[in-house]
Amino acid sequence: MNAPTPRVLAIVLAALVFAPSTGSAERAFKSAAKDNFKWHCAQCHGEKGNGKGPNATADLPVEPRDLTSKTDIPRFTDDQVTKTLTHGGPANELSSIMPPWGNTLSKKEIEDLLAFVRTLGGPFNPDLGPPEKTKRKTDAALSDR
Questions:
Q1: Ordered alpha helix ranges (H), 69-136
Q2: How high does pLDDT run on average in the chain?
Q3: Which of 7, 86, 111, 120 could, after both became Cys, cross-link 49 (CB 3.0–4.6 A)?
Q4: Predicted model pTM
């Protein structure tokens, strides 16, 4: 077997040096998706996604969903999450105060946000059954404020 020529080695080395790094692309995706989450979602869902954001007060008629729940979020298909992100909670008979982001975020940004949410709660798992409807606070709990 012949050793590679210096020209072949130079081409291989150049390809490795100038090839886009999937690590840096992945970091950029995570950074952009996380930034969008912090800006658009964390107000209600919290920076950790646990439903404890600064807007999740007693005045809110619903409790924001805990996106870190490994038994709740995996009940939603990717299509359901994408539809909710794009068209708001009512698109999937969820909270009417969950806003739509389809006119604010690009389709790619919504796809990346879906992927980010999946890192919090896990992938779709049909064995868990259908998702539960948004839990509204009772009238008594709202009037106790």
A1: 78-87, 107-121
A2: 83
A3: 120
A4: 0.74
Give the residue numbers spanning the domain of 63: 29-143
pLDDT digits (tens, 9 = 90+) for 65-86: 999 999 999 999 999 999 999 9
Q: Where are the beta strands (DSSP E) in 1-145?
A: none
Separation of alpha carbons 82 and 60, rounded Å = 24
Share of the chain above pLDDT 90, in %: 64
How is residue 125 annotated by DSSP?
A: -
Q: Is residue 5 part of a domain?
A: no
Tell me the two tokens of residue 10.
């130079």
Helix, strand, coil share of the chain (percent; to 5):
55, 0, 45
- Structural domains counted in the chain: 1
